[in-house]
Amino acid sequence: MALDDVTVELTSGFLLLQAKKGMQAVSPSCNPLAQAIEQVVQAMITGIPTQHGPRPVDAALDRLVIATSEDGSKSFDELGTVCRRLQGHPFSIPLEYAAKTVVQRRALRTIIEMITREWSRATGSPPTEVELRQLLKVLEVVRYDFAEEGGADLARLRMILRNCTDFPMIDRPLETLTQLGHASQQKQTWFPLEDLRRAVQATPAAGNKSYTNHLRPMPDPYIPRTEYVAEFPDGQVIVFSGGAGCGKTTLALHLAHHSIEDFPDAQLMVDMRGYGTGIPMSSKECVDTLLAQLGEEPTNDCTDIQKRQLLINLLNDKRCIVVLDNVAESPDIVFQLLRKGSSKIILTSRRALANLSRESGVRSVQVDALQAVEAYRLFAAYVDEERIAKEPESAQRILDICGNLPLAVEIAGAHVRSLGHQSLARIATGLTDSEARLDFLDLGEPASSIGTIFSWTYDTLSDAQKTTFVMVGNALGPDLPSEAVAALLGTGRAIGRLRELRHLNLVQEDADGVFHMHDLLRDYACSLARQDRQLFEASSRANRELVRCYTEYVKESLPSARVEGKAEMWLDKNVERVLCAIIQGVKRDGLLDCMALADALIEHMWRCGRSSEYVDILRACVSLSREAGDIKSAEYFLRQAAITLRRIGSHEECVEHAEAALDLVAPHTLEAADSHGIIAAAHSYAGNHEAALANYYKALALFGQLDQDEAAGDIHNGLGWSLLQLGRTTEALYHCDEALTIHRAVGNLNSMAADLDSLAFIRREMGDREAALRHFEECLSIYRRLRYTTNTVRTLDSMGDLHETAGHLREARDHWSEALKITKDAGLAELPEAVALSRKLKALEGKNVTPS
Prior knowledge:
The protein is an alpha/beta fold. Helices cover 60% and strands 6% of the residues.
């Protein structure tokens, strides 16, 4: 028969074969290829010609084949590979994901362009996305040596068809005809047509085994995991390990389905029930299940050893792919299969299966959460993109709750889709606590409930491991640095206990030794604590110890109290972790314990120029304290917020917060004295020095009554500054000298620097420039030692002003230049102080700047 325009009618469908000579490249300029595409497109548009007339192409039954015998470009082979992938390509995934290499992507783009052009020529408009996908789904592109220039016999046609596709329509009728063709050649006889018909319709001979594909179908929608599917690892055995719901099984299925051509004899899959409600599958049951899938029925007298050997022989002799899903521990059957054979085994487990890795060098692929773009595309496959576009922020809030965990995204997407009448904002608003989030990620069936999925791992833990899991999940802060683990767990082998959880992918450990737990696992741990009073109390005790640990590290890291040998940068590296712990702490029963931590941290935030950030945290603490009815904590955080507001220049708000704190305390207490001092400082910075004096005197009297000499020293300094502004320099000098004497006695460097700063301004006002410079120099030395960026800049600025007043322009320029450089290095170049320094340096340009 002619090789061009061959249409083969089979039992279950049709195959249109377009075989053209001269197809040497997948290129629009290749005329034979263009002619073949013309015929293929025509078949899609008008139907496949049959003896009963044209019939529409059925994607489930038919194939349109373009074949070439040329030895030119191998782009045909690459395009053929892509076409085979497209047969099972989900509609939600872009077509280009079927092309894995540059050559494949180029060939796919070219063939789509040629199909689109021919379709447009035939119909007047390009194909729709659905029409294009339907065509590509039935298209095959192959290279085959036809041997005979003018045609091929039936046996050769059968080989062509086998090379074109493994689709089941190349079935028994064609096989029977091929066998009869061979018999005809051997006997040199012809078979009557009726004999051929009876042979085709006859029952096939017994003994010919066919193996069913036992792989579960790919989920739909499915988003390819680009970091994994781009290059799957080689090896006879592969382990996908990762936490519950991270997509291990889907990745295993992806690899298995895409490897069918390499393992055509059988595709097997067994749920080992390692985690779930049932009893884990034994090795014996696993062997029996695999043998059943291979169509083997051992006799009753066959021993377990014989069955196992039969399975090993079958898998070693054939090219099979075996997926062992949901494995709890390394199956011993895998060790025996590793010895030889051509089959491939893929395992999925919530642990790394260390025995396989250690004894056999099997590679374990750690499966993590989705990338952000993949999570969005998966969510959008469930929820209409137009709906997401209307409320993008609410959609992102729902996605954030899922933490890019594939199962969580799927459940959330399905749940949102079922709530089509509700806005995304309304849905997201109700997901503010852990119970609400776990309830939302539960569709009413065990496999579609994130809490149930997590429980299957939790139920396998020992009592000690369960307690550790709950304590870590309830720990304050986003994660746990190694130095805090012992404080939280209260045991010498705390790191070892956490690593036991890491082996089960319940926590992760990064390169710095910091332990992390997924937010949804933390939600689950919190729900467990709420249900069990003992676990709740254990978690509360652990958090109190954690807060004390952080407080000590903060205090030791501050320049004013730094201990030789301690890591100087600990607080710089951990400040975000500590801030998060404070916020979470005030939401829970550890509220009072967080007060000391917040107090210790305020100095660092001020020194780093981050007071404006910290005030928001303190305001949140005030609000949460009031909601909890904790008056003492509310008053404390009000005072801390007032101090911070004064430092960032919000004097009116400072007074409001301090007066609110004053309303919450008894009149003759340390807290009342502190509040008066804060109010006085705010009035002073705002220029209202008469009001400042009234509050300073009240604070000084109270501190004196309470024998609080160090606190009284701070009030003396503030009082001296306000007196200076009112022109009462002699009184000012007395109070500031008194403050410095008190603070030198107790060794408070921070307060000493503030006293020296005030004394420098007083001496300058009194005309004693040399004494003013001495005070500024000592003040600057302390601030540099304490690494107080903003105060170092302010002191340098003041010294520059003093030099400029004396006509020492070079010294003024040097001090201002150093101050400006510090602000830029600290990322504070946009602050008003930095702008003012730039203006001062600009004004010096053109002046005669010479050494004094």
